[in-house]
Design goal:
By secondary structure, the chain is of the alpha/beta class. It is built from 11 helices and 9 strands. The strands form 2 sheets. A 6-stranded parallel beta sheet has the order 1-4-3-2-5-6, sandwiched between helices. The chain has a 3-stranded antiparallel beta sheet with strand order 7-8-9. Helix 7 crosses helix 8. Bound molecules: adenosine-5'-triphosphate, pantoate (PAF) and beta-alanine.
């Protein structure tokens, strides 16, 4: 596995691979890798001759300076995990390399970003779209791999790919979970023992909501109230939002739409750490 630190080096290597007729898979990450990331890399390695993994804690997508400062950074350990997973090249740029001067780009994804993460993290998807666009331009992947754990991010990137005519296939990979159901996440490393012990409740709340959605005997508002009530039993969990939305449009549901998949999405704070999770009910 080679390590590339500059945009020019990434561009030059991927151009060569393209000329050689190799399929390029890109897995964008912010590092502190876990099994969820590694499964994306392994999937890319099965489908592409070349796998580029980027690790970049992107400042423009953080609305909370402490969250940015405390985000786990483990480049050496990450590099050791990537090689055996099938990564060909690790792109590890500095902030100055990605943003030689402040970016003036502004993306507006309309209703897609007025809800959930977009509503609660102002500017977040502008930063995500900016850095993902730069990564797509620099590496020109045939396939780009994202996790469903960041459900709204997948919808925003799908819109980005369509609107800017990026010539690539977007792969949305299922959420990988710990044995107790907690969605794997780099921020899980920041949970202390009591917070880690209660963290599976987030997925349990979503499963409770899923059961109610499948029964269709109660309204979306009642599903939301039941899942939020379950989480409220644990005072150390501060629910930021729990949304029952149309899985395509991401707009909140006031009534069930037959034939439309439903996404149940939440964000919550435990012991000073903010986590997200979701379930899609078809
Ligand atoms: N548990 C998981 N299962 C599948 N994909 C995942 C999982 N966790 C993260 N990913 C995906 O990996 C890519 C990189 O994510 P990122 O580096 O932000 O990790 P993360 O674990 O989501 O961290 P955090 O949520 O704490 O920022 C994203 O496309 C993300 O959706
Ligand atoms: C896609 C991404 C790497 C952009 O910084 C980030 O949002 C993430 O890790 O999900
Ligand atoms: N995985 C999403 C990146 C973020 O929380 O900023």
């Amino acid at each position: 596995m080679e390590i590339l630190n500059t945009a020019a080096a990434l561009q030059a290597r991927t151009e060569t691979w393209r000329r050689e007729g190799k399929r390029i898979g890109l897995v964008p990450t912010m590092g502190a890798l876990h099994e969820g990331h590694l499964q994306l890399v392994r999937a890319a390695a099965q489908e592409c001759e070349v796998v580029v993994v980027s690790i970049f804690v992107n400042p423009t997508q953080f609305n909370n300076p402490d969250d940015f400062r405390l985000y786990p950074r483990l480049p050496e350990a990450d590099a050791a995990l990537l090689d055996p997973a099938g990564c060909t090249a690790l792109f590890l740029p500095s902030v100055e390399e990605m943003y030689p001067q402040p970016t003036v780009l502004r993306f507006d994804f309309g209703p897609l970003e007025r809800v959930m993460e977009g509503e609660h993290r102002p500017g977040h998807f502008n930063g995500v779209a900016t850095v993902v666009s730069k990564l797509f331009h620099l590496s020109r992947p045939h396939r780009a791999y994202f996790g469903q754990k960041d459900f709204q991010q997948v919808a925003v990137v799908r819109q980005l790919v369509q609107d800017l005519s990026f010539d690539l296939d977007l792969v949305a990979y299922p959420t990988i979970r710990e044995a107790d159901g907690l969605a794997m996440s780099s921020r899980n490393r920041r949970l202390d023992a009591p917070a880690r012990a209660m963290a599976p409740r987030l997925y349990q709340a979503l499963q409770l909501a899923e059961t109610l959605v499948c029964e269709k005997a109660v309204s979306p508002a009642e599903v939301k109230a039941a899942a939020a009530g379950f989480l409220a039993e644990e005072p150390a969990i501060a629910l930021e939002y729990l949304a029952v939305v149309d899985a395509q449009t991401l707009q909140p549901l006031t009534e069930w739409q037959p034939g439309h998949p439903v996404a149940l999405c939440l964000a919550a704070h435990l012991g000073g750490v903010r986590l997200i999770d979701n379930i899609v009910v078809n």
